[in-house]
Amino acid sequence: IENINVSYQQTLALDNITLNLKGPSITGIMGPNGAGKSTLIKATLGILKPKHGKVIIAEKSIKGKKLRMAYLPQQIASFNAGFPSTVYEFVKSGRYPRQGWFRRLTAHDEEHVRISLESVGMWEHREKRLGALSGGQKQRAVIARMFASDPDIFILDEPTTGMDVGTKDAFYQLMHHSAKKHGKSVLMITHDPDELNKYADRNIHLVRDQQSPWRCFNVHETDEEVVHV
Ligand code: ADP
Ligand code: MG
């Protein structure tokens, strides 16, 4: 991410952000509401185009294959409750983009779906309709689908909001395991400083630029600690 500025109409939301995200690693993004955390993630994904600067994404993963990114938007627990499929079908659909919709799923795919469901404690709920799940269960189903799609980079906007302490801890351990054992990279917005200090390789804190008008933010970071400015 090279020197990007992102504005909404005339309002500057991110000012001159430069970041180099190398994998495999876990990078946390923190900062107050309205600081521009979601904006930074959307610009990274290419959903928002910066006014200046550029975002360069590697075409290939460290394994030499086409790089795949998964994005978990903020507040997914409220996503369409009328979605007609079962949890299993929904998570299984995460396997298709790899080789097209008409391919039959292999035993390896099915295994991946099972592990993904188990990893978020949703295996026993796999036959339920999505609409019948609680908000927290829906969120876990979406996370399981993301694991099933087996991306190289996880980009997560407040994934632990609404999780209880046990689920949260298991989630962080799983992301840590994914990075350390499977070479994944994680870029995650969170309000959990303790968990970040424990699991993240790097924390980025978005702060308000003192010289700039309200709403204009800058990035400060270190390898070790969150910097509060
Ligand atoms: P955070 O995720 O850190 O809470 P956001 O990136 O969502 O912050 O928002 C950064 C700033 O940009 C806020 O002041 C917010 O009001 C503004 N903003 C976000 N989305 C839009 C939008 N679609 N149109 C106009 N302003 C927006
Ligand atoms: Mg946000």
Please give a quick description of this structure.
This protein has 229 residues and is of the alpha/beta class. It has helices spanning 37-45, 87-92, 107-119, 135-148, 165-182, 193-199, and strands at residues 2-8, 11-17, 26-30, 52-54, 69-72, 153-157, 185-189, 202-208, 217-222.
Shape: globular
Structural class: alpha/beta
Query: Percent helix among the residues?
Result: 25-40%
Report Rg.
Answer: 18 Å
Ligands, deduplicated:
adenosine-5'-diphosphate, magnesium ion
- Percent in strands: 15-25%
The stretches of 5 or more residues where confidence is low (pLDDT under 50) are 213-217, 222-229
**Biggest sheet, strands in spatial order?**
5-6-7-3-8-9
End-to-end separation in angstroms reads: 22 Å
Q: Could you describe the largest sheet, including whether it forms a barrel?
A: 6 strands, mixed
Mean pLDDT: 85
How do the helices and strands follow one another from N- to C-terminus? EEEHEEHHHEHEHEE
Query: What count of helical segments does DSSP give?
Result: 6
- By DSSP, the count of extended strands is 9
